[in-house]
Amino acid sequence: MNLCKYRDSFGKVGTGVHSLRLFNIAVVDTLLTLLLAYIINSYLKSNLLVIFFLLIILSIAIHKAFCVETTLTKMFFSF
């Protein structure tokens, strides 16, 4: 299944809310991922950092599936 045609569904890389960056990582995306980790943690009563790390890994896989090149996907798949 090719999901590349939907790559701009949530906006183009580096534009709009994705333009606010720190070390070339989208700040808004990272904060929303942290918020989701906090919400999941409030239900599971688990380790917040582990949940955040797992969500980051999931986001890397999703970005790769949609053919979106991000700083993290480049770092993760450069090996």
TrEMBL record:
Keyword Transmembrane assigned: yes
Keyword annotations of the record? Membrane, Transmembrane, Transmembrane helix
- TM region(s), chain numbering: 20-40, 46-66
Q: What is this protein called?
A: Uncharacterized protein
Native organism is viral metagenome
